[in-house]
Design goal:
Elements: E1 8-13, H1 15-32, E2 38-44, H2 48-57, E3 62-70, E4 83-86, E5 96-104, H3 108-118, E6 124-132, E7 145-149, E8 172-175, H4 177-181
Parallel strand pairs: 2-3, 2-5, 5-6, 6-7
Antiparallel strand pairs: 1-8, 3-4
Helix pairs in contact: 1-2
Length: about 180
């Protein structure tokens, strides 16, 4: 059992919760995309942990690419403005594309990404998101693979950061108030 990071107030999703869910998602994706020439697109930086785990939970041939977007700057509130910091290397034309996202908060980042990637004429375009915050989501999204609905609080771990830290925690949790004050 991993020792709890002292800055974490409450664990929202344990390592076991996440690992069993990701295994299930990988199994479902492998069934749905059998013979489909799957291309997974991870949204950096947050999705790098989820991408590594889901990659190994998928048993069919698949390709992987990443793009980096920034929607938050370094604060804990969404700005609604999405910047592409690194674009994909691969051409999406006629590919079956599955976007891997760590968390959907307002949904603004993903709705921008969907519009952008649709313009590249993939054969199909679906979303896989580990977490959503339904109470604060501002745009409706059709999320084909969904892990957990969590409360509308700021969380870190499993790829998610606060000022670039805590991404390496194997669980997801809230931060103690003093962390924001320091
Ligand atoms: P949205 O555009 O509001 O849906 O925000 C999506 C992005 O903001 C995610 O891909 C994360 O990188 C980041 N984000 C949203 N909620 C959290 C959180 O609770 N902790 C850390 N990052 C978050
Ligand atoms: Mg992200």
């Amino acid at each position: 059992m991993t020792e709890l990071n002292p800055d974490i107030e409450q664990v929202i999703l344990t390592e076991d919760d996440i690992q069993s869910k990701v295994a299930l998602m990988g199994k479902q994706i492998s069934e749905d995309y059998r013979d489909a020439d799957l291309l997974l697109v991870g949204v950096l930086k947050g999705a790098f942990v989820m991408m590594a785990d889901i990659a190994r939970a998928i048993s069919i041939p698949a390709e992987f690419d990443f793009m980096a977007v920034s929607s938050y700057g370094s604060s804990t509130r969404t700005s609604g403005i999405v910047r592409i910091l690194k674009d994909l290397d691969l051409d999406l034309h006629d590919r079956n594309v599955l976007i891997i996202e760590d968390i959907v908060d307002s949904g603004l980042t993903l709705s921008y990404l969907l519009k952008n990637l649709k313009g590249r004429k993939p054969r199909s375009l679906e979303i896989c998101a580990l977490m959503t915050k339904p109470e604060v989501q501002e745009v409706t999204l059709d999320i084909r693979y969904h892990g957990f609905a969590i409360p509308p609080t700021f969380v870190v771990g499993y790829g998610l950061d606060y000022h670039q830290r805590y991404r390496n925690l194997p669980y997801v949790g809230t931060l103690k108030p003093h962390v924001y004050e320091d």
